Amino acid sequence: MKKLFVLVLWIITILIAFTIGQKTEKHRIDDKSVNNATVITETKTEQTSDKSIVEVPISDVESIATEQKNGITQKEAEELCREVLGEKAEENGFPISYRCISAVSANNKMYYVMHIAWLVDDNHWSYIGNCYVSSDGHEIYDGIVSSGKYEMTDLRWTK
Questions:
Q1: pTM for the full model?
Q2: Span 102-134, pLDDT tens digits
Q3: Contact 114/101 with Cβ under 8 angstroms?
Q4: CA gap 18, 54 in Å, rounded
Q5: b (16+ CB within 10 A) / e for 98-110
Q6: CB–CB of 84/106 below 8 Å?
Protein backbone atom coordinates (compact mmCIF):
# COMPACT_ATOMS: atom_id res chain seq x y z
CA MET A 1 0.00 0.00 0.00
CA LYS A 2 2.84 2.39 0.86
CA LYS A 3 4.50 1.70 -2.54
CA LEU A 4 1.23 2.48 -4.33
CA PHE A 5 0.91 5.76 -2.41
CA VAL A 6 4.48 6.76 -3.33
CA LEU A 7 3.86 5.84 -6.98
CA VAL A 8 0.70 7.97 -7.12
CA LEU A 9 2.52 10.95 -5.55
CA TRP A 10 5.35 10.55 -8.05
CA ILE A 11 2.91 10.53 -11.01
CA ILE A 12 1.12 13.64 -9.71
CA THR A 13 4.45 15.45 -9.30
CA ILE A 14 5.44 14.58 -12.88
CA LEU A 15 2.08 15.81 -14.22
CA ILE A 16 2.35 19.11 -12.34
CA ALA A 17 5.91 19.66 -13.56
CA PHE A 18 4.83 18.89 -17.14
CA THR A 19 1.90 21.32 -16.94
CA ILE A 20 4.08 24.13 -15.58
CA GLY A 21 6.69 23.44 -18.25
CA GLN A 22 4.07 23.77 -21.00
CA LYS A 23 3.43 27.41 -20.12
CA THR A 24 7.01 28.46 -20.84
CA GLU A 25 7.69 26.19 -23.79
CA LYS A 26 8.76 27.83 -27.07
CA HIS A 27 6.38 27.39 -29.98
CA ARG A 28 7.16 27.19 -33.72
CA ILE A 29 4.92 28.97 -36.18
CA ASP A 30 5.34 28.73 -39.94
CA ASP A 31 6.80 31.80 -41.65
CA LYS A 32 4.31 33.85 -43.67
CA SER A 33 4.50 37.32 -45.09
CA VAL A 34 1.43 39.55 -45.34
CA ASN A 35 1.60 43.17 -46.48
CA ASN A 36 5.28 43.53 -45.54
CA ALA A 37 4.62 41.96 -42.16
CA THR A 38 6.11 38.76 -40.86
CA VAL A 39 4.55 36.11 -38.70
CA ILE A 40 6.70 35.55 -35.63
CA THR A 41 8.74 32.36 -36.12
CA GLU A 42 9.48 31.74 -32.45
CA THR A 43 7.53 33.15 -29.59
CA LYS A 44 7.79 32.87 -25.88
CA THR A 45 4.59 32.71 -23.91
CA GLU A 46 3.69 36.19 -22.75
CA GLN A 47 1.00 35.99 -20.11
CA THR A 48 -0.98 39.04 -19.17
CA SER A 49 -2.63 39.15 -15.78
CA ASP A 50 -6.44 39.04 -15.80
CA LYS A 51 -6.41 42.17 -13.64
CA SER A 52 -4.73 44.27 -16.35
CA ILE A 53 -7.25 43.28 -19.06
CA VAL A 54 -10.47 45.26 -18.91
CA GLU A 55 -13.47 44.80 -21.22
CA VAL A 56 -14.51 47.95 -23.11
CA PRO A 57 -17.35 48.58 -25.57
CA ILE A 58 -16.46 47.77 -29.18
CA SER A 59 -17.97 51.12 -30.20
CA ASP A 60 -15.42 52.95 -28.01
CA VAL A 61 -12.53 51.19 -29.74
CA GLU A 62 -13.94 51.93 -33.20
CA SER A 63 -14.60 55.59 -32.31
CA ILE A 64 -11.06 56.15 -31.09
CA ALA A 65 -9.61 54.28 -34.08
CA THR A 66 -11.58 56.27 -36.67
CA GLU A 67 -11.26 59.67 -34.94
CA GLN A 68 -7.49 59.36 -34.70
CA LYS A 69 -7.28 57.83 -38.22
CA ASN A 70 -4.65 55.37 -37.01
CA GLY A 71 -6.80 52.36 -36.29
CA ILE A 72 -9.04 49.69 -37.74
CA THR A 73 -12.71 48.80 -37.33
CA GLN A 74 -13.96 45.44 -36.07
CA LYS A 75 -14.74 44.40 -39.68
CA GLU A 76 -11.18 45.31 -40.69
CA ALA A 77 -9.88 43.28 -37.72
CA GLU A 78 -11.87 40.26 -38.96
CA GLU A 79 -10.45 40.75 -42.47
CA LEU A 80 -6.91 41.06 -41.07
CA CYS A 81 -7.35 37.70 -39.33
CA ARG A 82 -8.45 36.11 -42.62
CA GLU A 83 -5.41 37.59 -44.42
CA VAL A 84 -2.84 36.74 -41.74
CA LEU A 85 -4.15 33.53 -40.16
CA GLY A 86 -5.88 32.10 -43.23
CA GLU A 87 -9.37 31.18 -44.40
CA LYS A 88 -8.88 27.41 -44.37
CA ALA A 89 -7.30 25.11 -41.79
CA GLU A 90 -4.06 23.61 -43.08
CA GLU A 91 -4.62 20.35 -41.20
CA ASN A 92 -8.02 19.49 -42.71
CA GLY A 93 -9.10 22.19 -45.18
CA PHE A 94 -12.09 23.28 -43.06
CA PRO A 95 -13.19 26.90 -43.68
CA ILE A 96 -12.33 29.21 -40.76
CA SER A 97 -14.50 32.05 -39.42
CA TYR A 98 -13.30 35.05 -37.40
CA ARG A 99 -15.94 37.07 -35.52
CA CYS A 100 -15.39 39.99 -33.17
CA ILE A 101 -17.12 39.20 -29.87
CA SER A 102 -15.84 42.00 -27.62
CA ALA A 103 -13.03 44.47 -27.03
CA VAL A 104 -10.53 44.92 -24.23
CA SER A 105 -7.92 47.32 -22.99
CA ALA A 106 -4.60 45.77 -21.99
CA ASN A 107 -1.15 47.26 -21.48
CA ASN A 108 -2.36 50.74 -22.52
CA LYS A 109 -3.64 49.42 -25.86
CA MET A 110 -7.07 48.45 -27.23
CA TYR A 111 -7.75 45.02 -28.76
CA TYR A 112 -10.63 43.39 -30.60
CA VAL A 113 -11.38 39.94 -29.17
CA MET A 114 -12.03 37.41 -31.94
CA HIS A 115 -13.93 34.12 -31.78
CA ILE A 116 -12.38 31.55 -34.14
CA ALA A 117 -14.40 28.60 -35.44
CA TRP A 118 -14.21 26.15 -38.32
CA LEU A 119 -16.94 24.54 -40.40
CA VAL A 120 -16.76 20.80 -39.73
CA ASP A 121 -17.69 18.63 -42.74
CA ASP A 122 -19.97 21.41 -44.09
CA ASN A 123 -22.25 20.54 -41.19
CA HIS A 124 -21.66 22.75 -38.12
CA TRP A 125 -19.36 25.45 -36.79
CA SER A 126 -17.02 24.38 -34.00
CA TYR A 127 -15.12 26.77 -31.70
CA ILE A 128 -11.33 26.39 -31.97
CA GLY A 129 -10.00 29.40 -30.05
CA ASN A 130 -9.65 33.13 -29.64
CA CYS A 131 -7.23 35.81 -30.70
CA TYR A 132 -6.74 39.50 -29.93
CA VAL A 133 -6.21 42.04 -32.73
CA SER A 134 -4.73 45.40 -31.74
CA SER A 135 -6.89 48.38 -32.67
CA ASP A 136 -4.03 49.81 -34.74
CA GLY A 137 -3.90 46.57 -36.77
CA HIS A 138 -0.23 45.95 -35.93
CA GLU A 139 -0.46 42.87 -33.65
CA ILE A 140 -2.36 39.63 -33.27
CA TYR A 141 -2.07 37.64 -30.05
CA ASP A 142 -3.33 34.14 -29.34
CA GLY A 143 -5.50 34.01 -26.28
CA ILE A 144 -8.36 32.56 -24.32
CA VAL A 145 -11.75 33.87 -23.30
CA SER A 146 -13.49 31.85 -20.63
CA SER A 147 -16.36 32.80 -18.33
CA GLY A 148 -15.81 36.50 -18.95
CA LYS A 149 -12.08 36.29 -18.20
CA TYR A 150 -9.57 37.36 -20.82
CA GLU A 151 -6.04 36.05 -21.24
CA MET A 152 -3.55 37.04 -23.95
CA THR A 153 -0.79 34.53 -24.55
CA ASP A 154 1.55 34.34 -27.55
CA LEU A 155 2.29 37.14 -29.99
CA ARG A 156 1.27 35.47 -33.25
CA TRP A 157 1.87 38.25 -35.79
CA THR A 158 3.26 41.77 -35.91
CA LYS A 159 3.51 44.38 -38.65
A1: 0.68
A2: 999 998 899 999 999 999 999 999 999 999 999
A3: yes
A4: 31
A5: bebebbbbbeeeb
A6: no
